[in-house]
Amino acid sequence: MRKAIVVFTGLLVLALTTPAMAHFQMVFTPESALEKAKTIELKLVFTHPFEAGHTMDMGQPEEFFVVRKGKKKDILNTLKPITWTSLTNSGAAYETSYKLRGMGDNVFCLVPAPYHEEEEGCYIQQITKSFVNKGGVPSGWEAPLGLPTEIVPLNKPYNLFAGSTFSGIVLGDGKPVAGVEIEIEYIAALPDMKANKPGPVVAQPASSALVAITDENGV
User: Fold this and answer.
1) Residue 150, strand partner residues
2) pLDDT tens digit string along 48-77?
C-alpha cells in the first residue's frame, strides 16, 4: 500500500432513502507510508475511480483538516480549484500541498458540500478520510474523529498487502451502525498528479464495486 493512499468515505444521506452509489469523493496522494518528512501533494476529486470515468463538479468544501496525535489543524484555506479531466469528461476539483512534520499518523478529513442525487431524490454528503504515516510510528490511525458518519479502521490502513484482511467499524453519531451496505471500489487508474487526470488503467479486478454489510457491532 506504499504507492496508494487509503481512502475511507462515509455517507451522510440528507433524506429518508438509501442511495445506490457509484461515485466516490477521493482525497488522493501517491504514497501513504513515508520514511522521511516532505511536502506531499493532494488531489480532491469527486469521480468514478474504478472506471477512471465521469467526474462530478465539487462545490466549495465545508471543512478540510488534518489530525495528528489528537490535534486538529484547519487547512481549508490551502485548497486551490483545478479542473480534473477523466476519460469521459471534466469537472471542478481541488488540490493542495502539505508539509509533514514529525513522526506518526496524519489523518486528512474532507467534509464536502452536499450534492443532489436526482435518481434518489435526496442530498448526499460524502465525508472522506485519508491516512498518511511518516516514519512507521503509529499515533492515532485507529481513533475516531467525531464525525457525523465515519469508518474507523481496525487494521493499520497503510500497512496492508495483497491477501491480507482489512476491516473497520462504521459509526453514526459516534455509535456503531449495524446492517449498513458498504461499497468498496478499486482505483483502476492512479491519478496523474501533474496532468490532473487519470493515468493508464492498470487493473480492474472486479466487474463493479464490492459490497459488504456491517454486522451487529458495525464491523
Assistant:
1) 171
2) 888 888 999 999 999 999 999 999 999 999
Q: Which of 144, 149, 168 is nearest to 218 (CA)?
A: 168
C-alpha cell at 157: 490502513
* Residue 106, helix vs strand vs coil: strand
DSSP of 109-146: EEEPPPEEETTTTEEEEEEEEEEEEETT--SSTTS---
Nearest to 22 by CA among 152, 124, 93: 124
Return d(Cα 100, Cα 78) in angstroms, integer: 15
pLDDT at 131: 96
Residue whose C-alpha cell is 489528537: 70
Q: Are strands 122-134 and 104-111 parallel, antiparallel or unpaired?
A: antiparallel
Mapped to the 3 state alphabet, what secondary structure does 12-77 carry?
EECCCCCCCCCCEEEEECCCCEECCCCEEEEEEEEECCCCCCCCECCCCCCEEEEEECCEEEECHH
pLDDT digits (tens, 9 = 90+) for 134-177: 999 999 999 999 999 999 999 999 988 888 889 999 999 999 99
pTM equals: 0.89
Q: What is the pLDDT of residues 73-125, one digit of tens each?
A: 999 999 999 999 998 999 999 999 999 988 999 999 999 999 888 888 899 99
Tell me, what DSSP letter sits at residue 162? T
Q: 74 vs 9, 62, 108, 112, CA distance in Å?
A: 19, 11, 10, 14
